[in-house]
Amino acid sequence: MDIKSITMEIEEKVIEIRRHLHSNPELSLQEYNTTEYIYNMLKDTNIELQKCSSGTGIIGILNGRGKGPTLGIRADIDALPIVEETELSFASKNQGVMHACGHDVHTSVLIGTAIVLDRLKDSFNGTIKFIFQPAEETMQGAKYMIDEGVLKNPDLDHIICLHTWPFTDAGKIGVRHGAIMASANRFEIEVYGTGGHAAHPHKSVDAIPIAAQIVSSLQQIVSRKLSPIDSAVLTIGQIHGGTADNIIAKKVTISGTVRTLKTEVSENIKQSMEEISQNIAKAFNGDAKVNYYPGSPPVINDKQMVDLLAEVVTENLGESCLEYLEEPSLGGEDFAFYLQHVNGMLFRLGTRNELEASQRGLHNPGIIFDEKAISTGIITMSSFAVRYLNR
Ligand code: NI
């Protein structure tokens, strides 16, 4: 039997799996039942299953007929702290937790892909590692899996993953060369004055006007210090300071996020932020400290992998099902941490249909993913793996 026929045969079962996962979401690093469930779904296959040491997260290893490369396929399995508002018959039974990023779809697509490839294991060489990763939403999971040794034994040659995408039709695959997701970083600037009586500003250092100058000067980093070719977002999301109307503020905290498509751009922004904050504070006898928290690096797709995917999609789903995405997303994705060690690709699984609820953004409490995407995901992943391993 071929990939498509097996996928059609198991589609209903995999949709049931997806609904079970959707009803029973678990937060990052608490995916114990999800891990157990994945184990049970795959325990009767030839896939060698290894649960991670903490009991959340699981790796499956499937060997083909002969020697060959090793491909990692990763699905994230965690949900979000969101109260679900979909009114689906299989809505979350875990109050306040929801699969609003589609990780239930990712997990079921990977389970389905594992079932398909297990049946076809004599048709490819090499090894597939199925990586069910916890805690993507908190950006902890990929590093955790790397610490668990997922890159080694056998060593990964490439790694791929998919992510649901409510801006592409269900049945289609979206991808782009180069950057597809941004580097997401956090910062916090502490501005220090001395405090004092509001009536005697000349006898103290006021942190508020210093902070105000820093806020407006930070706007010039993207417009005046970066190359116009490099894109970046610098958003200040919070500013807190002062204690009373008649007291000169001693401390102000400014915090926000920096998104870039290149790691070096993020480094440049950090440096400019320090120069601007410290020099402005110094000019008014105050002080400033910049805390910069690097998050995930950008996700940069490997050219060969994208070209191979394009071939596979065109051949198996048809040319009209391949969508080259014009823009990367400035969202962050911890899959980038694997890409610091091994080349790979993230692609988009379209989940949009004519219903408004399917067109809402990821993390929206009312988003409904079109389940037609599940078979598209399984066919694409399985065909990609076989093609890659037999290259
Ligand atoms: Ni996600």
Per DSSP, the total helix count is 9
Into which percent range does the helicity of residues fall? 25-40%
What oligomeric state do these chains adopt?
A: single chain
Instruction: Give the structural class.
Output: alpha/beta
Give the C-alpha Rg.
24 Å
* Count of distinct strands: 16
Number of domains: 2
Which molecules are bound in this entry?
A: nickel (II) ion
Range of strand content: 25-35%
Name the CATH superfamily classification of the largest domain: Zn peptidases
Largest beta-sheet details: 8 strands, mixed
Report the CATH topology name of the largest domain. Aminopeptidase
What is the overall shape?
elongated
Walk across the major sheet and give the strand order: 1-2-4-3-5-16-6-15
Distance between the termini: 21 Å
Question: If you average the pLDDT, what whole number results?
Answer: 97
CATH level-1 class of the largest domain = Alpha Beta
Q: Which architecture of the largest domain would the CATH scheme give at its second level?
A: 3-Layer(aba) Sandwich
Give the uncertain stretches in residue-range form: none
What does this structure look like?
The chain is an alpha/beta fold. It folds into two domains: 3-176 and 325-389, Zn peptidases (Aminopeptidase, 3-Layer(aba) Sandwich), CATH 3.40.630.10; 182-296, 2-Layer Sandwich (Alpha-Beta Plaits). The protein is 34% helix and 26% strand. The chain contains nine helices and 16 strands. It has helices at 3-23, 32-42, 103-119, 141-147, 207-225, 263-283, 303-316, 336-339, 372-389; strands at 48-51, 58-63, 70-76, 127-133, 158-169, 173-175, 178-181, 183-192, 196-197, 232-241, 247-248, 251-260, 287-296, 299-301, 322-324, 344-352. The strands form four sheets. It has an eight-stranded mixed β-sheet, with helices on both faces. A four-stranded antiparallel β-sheet has the order 10-12-8-13, with helices on one face. A two-stranded antiparallel ribbon has the order 7-14. α1 (3-23) packs antiparallel against α3 (103-119), α3 packs across α9 (372-389) and α5 packs antiparallel against α6 (263-283). The mean pLDDT is 97. Bound molecules: nickel (II) ion. Nickel (II) ion binds next to loops. The site of nickel (II) ion has 4 residues, from loops.
